[in-house]
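Quick one: structure tokens for this chain, please?
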Amino acid sequence: MSQKKILLVEDNEFNRKIVRDLLARQPYGLLEAHDGEAGVEAARREKPDLIIMDVQLPRLSGLDATRRIRAEPETAKIPIIVVTSFALSGDDKKAMDAGASAYLAKPYSPRQLLDAIRKMLGDA
């Protein structure tokens, strides 16, 4: 069985390191993009099994990037976990309306993220 690919779209190096460390001992390959535009391009090019999308990103917001990924037939079905550190009332609805498959507010525990990943990939 081939390794499932996860695309992390996150501009903060500290947050990328947390996810990198979390997934290092898991059976997933990790791809990284540092802004929304690069995230959309990586999704098109790599067709990952799952995307973890930050909301606050340079060049293109995570919600706009999610909408673009959903608008393209070849990437429309990829599960997307939207994460944000500026969680406001209604942000979860905005994320789901943009096409998120799941929503996590930071700070989340590594276990919460891993559980969401496994659930989305059918590995739970």
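Residues 20 and 30 are 7 Å apart (CA to CA).
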